[in-house]
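Q: I have 165 residues here and want to know how they pack in 3D. Can you give me a structure?
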Amino acid sequence: MKKQTLALAVCVVLGFTGPRLSAHESTYAQVDTRHGPAEQMPWGIAGNADEATRTIVVSTADNMRFAPGDIEVREGETVKFVVRNDGKTLHELVLGTQASNAQHAAMMRKFPGMEHDEPHMAHVGAGKAGALVWTFNRQGEFEYACLIPGHYEAGMKGRVRVLAK
């Protein structure tokens, strides 16, 4: 009994509370290229900047719109997105499906202060720029969105069409 009590006390002191799920975990596996190989998402896979075939600048603003609002790429293309925040508030660009972004937006409303660190997301402070690199290896129509609470609901989203090679 003393050993069990001591083990419990050590776990409490060290902050162990059992398995935890981050606020970002969803039905899709999260990608973290710093800790191993990238994982395939329904909308593609984290890309290598050295393999980017083009750079697309996407501007965000406080009018809750992206410019451009529609992007076309070819299947297999690796794109570097430079996300420029021309507004006075934090914005982000999150690649995903309409369903995954809607699910994530709902999570953001519940946990507005949660932090992001996935390769399919770029968080950009006012007047700053950020970047992400993505390989679109699946055909289809996908979405990019700002999931800051209220921004997605105000229509801050765009479309990526991945055409055949």
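Q: Anything worth noting?
A: The two ends are 65 Å apart (CA to CA). The chain has two helices and ten strands.
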